[in-house]
Amino acid sequence: MTVESRSPEPAPVDDFDDVLERRIANGIIDYRGTENLDDLASRAGAAGWQLIHLDGSDVTTKAHYLQMWCDAANFPDTFGHNWDALADALTDLSWLHASGYVVVAENLSETADWAALGRELMVEACDAWADNGTPFLVLRR
């Protein structure tokens, strides 16, 4: 039996400056900083970035998950509320007019089937944005 090696999870981040100064590569990273959400959003905005806050506290279904993204990132009215539409939206975000994106994800399910696919789409978005040199990081709190 062959076991595929996997890259280790990135080290947790404590300092938001590491994110804004691009010392952290695109990806999903545990964030252990103490700043409140308003301060993070203000600092991201001052850098020309858009902060997207996901609060999964009440998310229990795929439909809720998709709506959470739609609301948090101000998706256009044409958003299709399906996985393909989410993948497309996460790799576009042109309506936010930003030079970088930081998603602060709190209380997201790690166990539901829909959560695994949602995480996969976030990883794909991180990679897609990295390909064109645009910051797109997901900070788990």
What does this structure look like?
There is one protein chain. This protein is of the alpha/beta class. The chain has one domain (about 25-140): Barnase, Chain D (2-Layer Sandwich), CATH 3.30.370. Helices cover about 40% and strands about 15% of the residues. The chain has 5 helices and 4 strands, in the order αβαβααβαβ. It has helices spanning about 15-20, 35-45, 60-70, 85-90, 115-130, and strands at about 25-30, 50-55, 100-105, 135-140. It has a 4-stranded parallel beta sheet, with helices on both faces. α4 runs parallel beside α5. The longest helix is centred in the C-terminal third of the chain and has 19 residues, at about 115-130. The radius of gyration is 15 Å and the shape is globular. It starts with 15 loop residues before the first helix and ends with a strand.
